[in-house]
Design goal:
255 residues; alpha/beta; Leucine-rich repeat, LRR (right-handed beta-alpha superhelix); 8-stranded mixed beta sheet
């Protein structure tokens, strides 16, 4: 009974064998070896791929991974690691031992601030770091040590101000901070987050009974006001052919 409970608690997903992993090996345009296991329904990090730890690139994106083991540091030649669109909540400290890494994509996961280790600042060759679409409230200050960093993605997070650790990165070319609750410059302290009103058009069938009734009442009020408003029709002059007919006869007097 206990074994059955343990099995049921384990995450379900596709099991990857060493043979399948070898079939997923590809050669990049510049002659590097890439292990592409993206979009394969993997829920647990396949231990068998440690037998292929000499690859240059590893793609585990668009899977169901919730955890990356500390053994990730065995991929010593890794220059490109793509883990986007998983369910990762934490990244192991051993990530900092991937000294050849130049690109790290952690976009669209479940990362919170404590889940991003300070050891990420040891990736001295890192040029591209994508942390977008997570739940980060701030960044580790150690990121300020990534002097080769060019591109940083921080969109769709919970940052309330621009990270100070990025200010001293001289080679930084692009930082994406869109869709964060960062107040605009000059915003008042009383209301640090300014909100913009938006207009949304919806079908009547999408409204509940009370909302629909309110909308109809408001519409009737507007219609009533328009009907009661003073008319701006052109004035009619009864008994005259045209109002200017008299003026035309008296033009000499006016002159």
């Amino acid at each position: 009974m206990a074994k059955d409970r343990k099995r049921s608690s384990e995450p379900k997903g596709r099991k990857i064998t060493l043979k399948m992993a070898k079939m997923a090996l590809k050669l990049t345009m510049d002659g590097k070896r890439r292990l592409d296991l993206s979009n394969m329904g993997i829920a647990t990090f396949p231990k068998c791929i440690l037998m292929l730890c000499d690859v240059d690139e590893l793609d585990l994106s668009r899977n169901l991974l919730k955890k990356i083991p500390s053994t990730i540091d065995q991929f010593v030649n890794l220059r490109w690691l793509d883990l986007h669109s998983n369910q990762l909540e934490t990244i192991p400290d051993s990530i900092g031992r991937l000294q050849n890494l130049t690109s790290l994509n952690l976009c669209n996961n479940c990362l919170i601030t404590p889940g991003l280790p300070n050891e990420i600042g040891h990736l001295r060759k890192l040029r591209s770091l994508n942390l977008g679409m997570n739940a980060l409230e701030r960044l580790p200050s150690s990121i300020g040590a990534l002097k080769e960093l060019r591109h940083v993605g921080l969109f769709n997070n919970l940052l309330t101000r621009e990270p100070e650790c990025l200010r001293n990165l001289l080679h930084l070319e692009r930082v994406n901070l869109k869709c964060n609750p960062i107040p605009p410059e000059g915003a008042s302290k009383a209301d640090p987050i300014q909100r913009t009103e938006c207009l949304y058009l919806v079908k009547e069938s999408c409204l509940c009974a009370s909302c629909l009734s309110k909308v109809k009442d408001d519409r009737q009020k507007v219609t009533r006001r328009l009907r009661e408003a003073p008319s701006h029709k052109k004035a009619m002059f009864s008994g005259l052919i045209t109002p200017n007919s008299v003026a035309q006869k008296d033009q000499a007097t006016w002159r």
